[in-house]
Amino acid sequence: MSNVLVTEEKLSNFINGEWVSVTRQEYAPVMNPANGDKILDVPLSTKEDVDRAVEAAKKAQKEWALVPAPQRAEILFQVGYLMKERKEHLSQILTMENGKVLEEARGEVQEGIDMAFYMAGEGRRLFGHTTPAELKDKYAMSQRVPVGVVGIITPWNFPIAIATWKSFPAIVAGNAVIWKPATETPMMAYEMAKIFEEAGLPKGVVNVVFGSGSEVGDAMVEHRDIRVISFTGSNDVGRSIASKCGQMLKKVSLEMGGKNAVIVMDDADLDLAVQGIVWSAFGTSGQRCTACSRVIVHEDIKERLEERLLAEMENITIGDGLDETNQMGPIINEAGLRKIEKYMQVGQEEGAKLLAGGYSLKDEKFGKGFYFAPTVFTNVTPDMRVAQEEIFGPVLSIIPVSSLDEAIEVNNNVAYGLSSSVFTQDVNKVFKAQRDLDTGIVYVNAGTTGAEIHLPFGGTKGTGNGHRDSGQAALDVFTEWKAVYVDFSGKLQRAQIDVE
Ligand code: UN1
């Protein structure tokens, strides 16, 4: 126990409204990445635990689907109020287990609160359609219906916000949820389960099963009665989930990262562009799917931009996120740190020039925490690995271009398509860029992060598989369309045949 915020020593699964111990007594330690201290133990559940959760969820879902959607929404409003009441508590625990600085943790919790109220509103807006029928005295309509039991697999980098993007639409639409949070950040799931319980969500509608992707995640993907898998995480894992779900004809929604760029044209407000770059590249230590990891800059202003960027980076304070003077926290764990370090070598071997950073931070102040210096590579060409692969750390690559057309081409020529941004004051360039940038999210005169929850979140190409989190689009993941025909003619009318 490292902090008064966390009094538990071991977590249990939350199944059918009860905290139940796991079928096998195996646990993994959860570490605070800011100082390497152990926070508590998280269970490593088995397939049997998943089976138990699915049995409970199946029963609960049948009842839950019959509760009118506005009443289901009432409970989500309650969830929102409780999250709001506990915002500071949730934020501090989030900082402890994830490392992001407190200000950003508060922002993430706020994103979850916003999602609760937004999706609760959808409970009165689960619109279907009425459509003129082909035949006389016949009524035709289509409506959204819940899919059944759905599985959500959530990442450590936004352990509460992303869970709300997935679970809230699932709940309001009448599904029951099996939730596997990342083992690095289980406390947010524990806290949310308590909130669901207190808000009056019926037992079994949300079940939390802690454990690894290879055991719990696989068991969820392979379970016949889990009808949807919604996953945010790495590309490799996402692809393997997609192929297994493909074989089973199971609906799957994926969000698997980005290689997001800020484009800075020669007419841009440079100070604003630098602020946007610093915030979206080094905020959350670059560990956002939406983080900016490329700056595509007009060659005429490249040097000026680099000078101002380096000056601005001097001001970044790094350390434990619970200390509010720090602006950048640690990397999630040792593996994350090693991956970033590896790219330092890769970049330099490819011929990129290190302009700032490039090393892990190790001295007394950082203790056993996992910190990496904000890093900039320059003279990067678009095909280098540092300009193509997701590094998931505070590492920027600067790529010079000579026109907007070239900038757009460079932006689009990567395997991912999540977020992009353009800084310019020319309205023609704005409209051209927003049309031609091949990403699911485009920003004008802002960095690549900061998506709002009532808009669709997701991307093109290797970022996903066409589905979206949050916004109204999330309802498409967690509902099926049902077409209903009511014939009140009193005789057999044969569609397509009896039409005059
Ligand atoms: C993520 O990085 O996976 O747009 C989510 C943003 C945040 C969410 C990021 N609202 O940066």
UniProtKB/TrEMBL annotation:
Domain Aldehyde dehydrogenase span(s) in chain numbering: 19-484
Catalytic residue list: E255
GO molecular function terms listed in the Swiss-Prot or TrEMBL record: aldehyde dehydrogenase (NAD+) activity
InterPro entries in the record: Ald_DH/histidinol_DH, Ald_DH_C, Ald_DH_CS_CYS, Ald_DH_CS_GLU, Ald_DH_N, Aldehyde_DH_dom, ALDH7A1-like
Catalysed reactions listed for this entry: (2S)-3-sulfolactaldehyde + NAD(+) + H2O = (2S)-3-sulfolactate + NADH + 2 H(+)
Gene3D superfamilies: Aldehyde Dehydrogenase, Chain A, domain 1, Aldehyde Dehydrogenase, Chain A, domain 2
Pfam family, one: Aldedh
Known EC number: 1.2.1.3, 1.2.1.97
Keywords: NAD, Oxidoreductase
Family under the similarity heading: Belongs to the aldehyde dehydrogenase family.
Oligomer and partners: Homotetramer.
Job of this protein: Part of the sulfo-TAL (or sulfo-SFT) pathway, a D-sulfoquinovose degradation pathway that produces sulfolactate (SL). Catalyzes the oxidation of 3-sulfolactaldehyde (SLA) to sulfolactate (SL).
Protein name per the record: 3-sulfolactaldehyde dehydrogenase
